[in-house]
Amino acid sequence: QVQLMESGGGSVQAGGSLRLSCAASGYTYSQFCMGWVRQGPGKEREGVATIDSDYSTTYTDSVKGRFTIYRDNTKNTLDLQMNSLKPDDTEMYHCEIYALGGCERIAWGGQGTQVTVSS
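Request: output the structure for the sequence above.
Response:
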């Protein structure tokens, strides 16, 4: 059974850092693109970062230079290091694994971990 479990969320002050982690089980994901998305109440889902099977990465403009996405295929984990956090980063963060061949069609998603940044 495929399962994604996020952790590492919490409450921090603006300028602080958090590291999110996603543990994937039930399959081997080394050939899949993986990523993080975020969504808050009443807001649209926003792609934050992706990392493909060749370790190429993409970031949404608002997090470039502040967030870094990592994957460890030996452990089936996906991390998101978030630095210089801003109140606008307050959202529920979800990890996702995408269907083979790209980073767009969601194959599996996690329940999310809440990040709250206070000013």
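The chain is about 0% helix and 50% strand.
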